[in-house]
Design goal:
Blueprint (H helix, E strand, L loop, with lengths): L10 E2 L4 E2 L4 E2 L3 E8 L5 E8 L7 E6 L12 H14 L1 E6 L5 E2 L2 E2 L10 H14 L5 E6 L1 H9 L9 E7 L8 H10 L3 E6 L7 H7 L6 E6 L9 H16 L8 E2 L2 E4 L3
Parallel strand pairs: 6-7, 6-10, 10-11, 11-12, 12-13
Antiparallel strand pairs: 1-15, 2-14, 3-15, 4-5, 5-7, 8-9
Helix pairs in contact: 1-6
Amino acid sequence: MATSQPAQADAHTDGPTEIGPTTVLPARRENIEFTTDDGKTLVGELALPEHTDPAAILLCLHPLPTHGGFMDSHVYKKASYRLPALAHLGVLRFNTRGTSSPRGTSDGQFEDGVGEHGDVLAAMRFLRDRGFANIWLVGWSFGTELVLRYGSRGPVVSQVSGGILLSPPLHRATEEDLGAWAESGLPLTVLVPEKDDYLQPDAARERFAAIPQAEVKGIDGAKHLWVGEKYVRRAHDEIVSRVAGRPVRLKTTWEGEVGTEMN
C-alpha cells in the first residue's frame, strides 16, 4: 500500500508571510490507522498543536468518494496545515472505506453511508482511546450525512460536543435523523453556500427548522466545493468560531517555522 509522509514545516520565514494554499504551519503530524468492528483498516492522519494539548479535536468526514471526495479534499487538508498552529485545534482526517488518497487506501468499498457508520464509530473509538475530549464532528457534503445520521445516536452522542456541516445536500439524512439531532440537544452549525448545487440557504433554513438549536449560515458567493482561498478561510473561521464559542478571524500571515506542500 502506497503511503505519503505527513507534511512538515521545515524552513523559517524572514518576516510575516502570506499563508497560501500550499503553506504548511508547524504541528505534530502522524499517519494513523484504525480498525472497524467489521475488520476494515482505515488510513488517515492526525495533526496536533506542536507544543500543547489541543483545545478541541475536529473529526473530519469527507465528501462523496465516488465523486472525488477523500481525506485530502482541500478544505480539510488546509485545516490540517493551519488550524493546529492558528487555533490550537487537532484535526483528524481519514479515508472512509474503499477510499484512496496519497496516504493510502482504506479497506472495503463504498457502502452509500450505511457501512460507513462503522467508520465513524472506529474513528471515535481511536480518539477516545487516545484520551481526547471536546470532539467536534465536521462533515462536508456526503460527510454531513454521516454526521446527521450517526452523530446524535449512541454511543457517539455522549462523546461529542457538537457538529458542523459544510454544504449539506440532505440526500441520505432523513427527517428522523434531524429529529434525533434535535432531541440530542447538541449544537449544530450549518454552512450553506449561496450558489450550492443541491441545497441553498433559504431551503436549508426550512429543512433545518426541525432542529431548534441549529444555526444556518448562508455563505455569500460560495459554491458547493468551497473553491478559492476566500471561501476556505471563511469555512475555517466559521469552524473555529463554533468550537471557540465566539467570533474568530484567523490570521492570514505567519512568521516563524513554515513549510510548503510537496506534490
